[in-house]
Design brief:
Elements lengths: L8 H5 L2 E2 L9 H11 L8 E5 L7 E5 L4 E6 L12 H11 L9 E5 L2 H4 L3 E5 L16 H20 L16 H16 L5 H13 L7 E3 L8 E3 L6 E4 L6 E3 L1 H9 L9 H5 L6 H12 L7 H25 L10 H18 L4
Antiparallel strand pairs: 1-2, 2-3, 3-4, 4-6, 5-6, 7-10, 8-9
Helix pairs in contact: 5-10, 6-11, 7-11, 7-12, 8-11, 11-12
């Protein structure tokens, strides 16, 4: 009905619900698999589906003594290399023993005969997930502390030696952003439903102008506030989630994706005026301090790249709607975001010198 208040992101995505029919799993088979593969597991299982997320169906598995999380590939037709739950499992298995806030992994199941698709089980970390990037429910001082804790955690990731934790085999020849541009261009083409001129220009211009990569680190790929768990009472990150597209690559691509919140509308000017949220300049200066950089060049290029990438991701969601694998009540909204993000990306490309 016109005039009705629309649900907030917090209302849409927080908590759990009964499992959707298309994502139902065989509880008896899962119980038997967990008994054989998850240390300390004792049933019975109570299975619910998390509301949040639109890529990999995610479940809460509650037992009398412990609560777990299960992440699985969705059923149906999938884009190449998408929904890589085995990749998620590998990176959290590498990071968790170092003390980095990655959930404890238990086991990966590559046998599709168990639940129909590959899945893994990890510990459920208790805390707060904030779906509104501006943190309106917090006082200004805590907003600032949460943002700086989020930044410190990303810097810790980028300062981690990827070879020492066993992820050196993820290194690939060439530059990370060049591979990413190629990957997301292909994903965009596979999901394309209409032509967007700004995307065509970005697909042509970005690979010809990519800056040199000066450092290599583990990169999360989708590092944002709603992909982490904040301590119940402290401004501290206790878990970073959703490692589906993590790899070894250019840490500046990761950081500038987070920094894009200051230019893409996620942090509107009024939120900055309300107090607490750091300015873009403060965020950049602190990241440079934490990672030992003298400053950041090519910010406009990286903004163009990240806006292109976000548009391609949104188009991928549109493609999943077409193919019947989208897992979000608001997935259809992404179709309208594609041309907006692409146009913003081309604007930043022109600031970076595109003609």
């Amino acid at each position: 009905m016109t005039g009705e208040a629309q649900p907030t992101r917090t209302e849409l995505y927080s908590g759990v619900r009964p499992v959707e029919d298309r994502h139902r799993i065989d509880a008896d088979r899962l119980t038997a698999w967990m008994a054989a593969n998850v240390e300390g597991f004792e049933g019975p299982l109570d299975i619910r589906q998390f509301k949040g997320g639109q890529s990999n169906p995610t479940y809460q598995l509650a037992t009398p003594s412990r609560t777990y999380v299960l992440r699985r590939k969705p059923p149906g037709r999938l884009l190449p290399s998408a929904h890589a739950v085995d990749r998620e499992f590998k990176v959290i298995s590498a990071l968790h023993p170092t003390g980095f806030p990655a959930p404890r992994p238990y086991a990966l199941c590559a046998d599709e005969g168990v639940l129909g698709t590959m899945f893994y089980v990890m510990d459920k970390v208790e805390g707060r997930i904030f779906w509104d990037q501006t943190l309106p429910e917090l006082a200004p001082a805590e907003r600032h502390a949460v943002f700086m804790a989020k930044l410190k955690t990303l810097a810790d990731l980028h300062n981690t030696d990827c070879d020492a934790i066993g992820l050196g085999d993820w290194r690939r020849p060439g530059t990370y952003v060049a591979r990413q541009i190629d990957r997301w261009s292909k994903q965009y083409r596979a999901s394309e439903t209409m032509r967007h001129e700004a995307m065509e220009r970005l697909i042509d211009w970005l690979p010809r102008t990519a800056p040199d990569q000066d450092r290599t680190s583990v990169v999360h790929g989708d590092y944002r506030l709603d992909n982490m768990v904040i301590h119940p009472t402290e401004a501290r990150v206790v878990a970073v989630l959703d490692w589906e597209i993590a790899t070894v690559g250019d840490p500046l691509a990761d950081f500038t994706y987070l920094l894009s919140n200051w230019i893409n509308g996620a942090i509107p000017p009024q939120a900055l005026a309300d107090g607490g949220l750091p300015s873009q300049d403060e965020f950049v200066a602190e990241y440079c301090r934490l990672t030992g950089r003298p400053g950041l060049a090519h910010l406009d290029w990286y903004f163009a790249y990240n806006l292109f990438r976000s548009a391609a991701i949104c188009q991928g969601i549109v493609g999943r709607i077409r193919d019947g694998t989208a897992n979000s009540p608001t997935a259809a909204e992404n179709e309208a975001r594609v041309p907006v993000l692409a146009a913003m990306g081309w604007d930043y490309a022109r600031r970076a010198g595109a003609a």
